[in-house]
Amino acid sequence: MKTYASPLGDIYLGSVQNGLASVIEKLKPSSLLVLADSNTLKYCIPVLEPVIGTNQCIVIPAGEQYKTLSSCEHIWASFIGRGPDRSALVLNVGGGMICDLGGFASSCFQRGIRFGHIPTSLLSMADASIGGKTGINFEGYKNYIGHFEAPSFIWIDPIFLDTLPLQETKDGIAEIIKHAIIGSRTLWDLLSGVDTLSSIRWPGILEENVLIKKRIVEADPHEKGLRKVLNFGHTIGHALESHHLSGSHPISHGQAVTLGMLAEVKMANIMGLVNDKDFQSIIQLIHRLLGLVEVTLPSMEKIRPWIQGDKKKTNGRVGFSLPDKIGSCGWNILVEDQDIAMSLDWLATQVVTPSERLI
């Protein structure tokens, strides 16, 4: 087991069955509450039962569409039924949706009860559980309601990755690739040496990923400057995710970020920030590890409102986070509409057949 102390929640990397009990014991909770979704209840909670017993879970249906205020109300009503006080501890067992939702619900209840994250998806291990962000979706916009609140701890155990379908593995790899592009040549080199997803040795990849995410969020916990680099791929990505979430064919967060990274690195190349060599290397790695995302892309006119609704805009303008080379990224970069449109038009050639482009 490896431990990384952090003011934004200590991070443990190793067997949850061999160490979680001692971490919980140190916190001396008056009661223990467990939040899961319908998938983690089936596949992941049994792994934890030797440690936490058969504690009755509060269960939310699986899926990003349930990261809502209505789910919070269900959680709060369940809390009241169990009678916790402020010394209680909530274990959020699940992917990014459960970590975001559970952290938000816990931090609001009685003005805040403690919570710990046990991420069970690669996406949540790589990104969502680390950094102290909580939130829910609102009116179709991703993570529009929320605040910063650090968990008591995050426990990352690769054992849960054995339960993941291929797309969820790809969703997590997308965020790990993002971290490599924005801030870690070491992580980039590790990923470049991966032949297939099935050959990945997770402990080394996850450790390097944790270190880069930890370094960035500790330097800027409330996203006033440096932490904005973590938004690379997410301005276009969140816009696409919100657009599809509002329709009948939602795409996963990882698929949206994959598309967002492709589009935004193209912007960086168009603007002369990223040279052709690094641009091609980034595109090739994304295609090799993640493949093509088969989706119909919205037109610039349809996606513009979602981009303009980005919660990170300042003075009415959306600032993009764009790489200037592999391992380095800037933020608050203004991009002209014509360059956004050019990147989306180029993106269409990467992900869909010509007959489906930009409709």
Descriptive overview:
- With 359 residues, this protein is an alpha/beta fold.
- The chain is 48% helix and 15% strand.
- It has a 7-stranded mixed sheet with strand order 1-2-9-6-5-3-4, sandwiched between helices. It has a two-stranded antiparallel ribbon with strand order 7-8.
- A hairpin with a 2-residue loop joins strand 7 (136-138) and strand 8 (141-145).
- Helix 6 (122-128) packs parallel to helix 7, helix 7 (166-183) crosses helix 9 (202-219) and helix 10 crosses helix 11 (253-270).
- The longest helix has 18 residues, at 166-183.
- The radius of gyration is 20 Å and the shape is globular.
CATH superfamily of the largest domain, by name, is Dehydroquinate synthase-like - alpha domain
- CATH class label of the largest domain: Mainly Alpha
User: So what's the oligomer here?
Assistant: single chain
Give the strand tally. 11
CATH level-two architecture of the largest domain: Up-down Bundle
Number of domains: 2
Q: Major sheet, described briefly?
A: 7 strands, mixed
Q: Tags for this entry?
A:
359 residues, alpha/beta, Rossmann fold, Dehydroquinate synthase-like, alpha domain, 2 domains, seven-stranded mixed beta sheet, 14 helices, 48% helix
Compact description:
The protein has 359 residues and is of the alpha/beta class. The protein folds into 2 domains: 2-164, 3-Layer(aba) Sandwich (Rossmann fold), CATH 3.40.50; 167-356, Up-down Bundle (Dehydroquinate synthase-like, alpha domain).
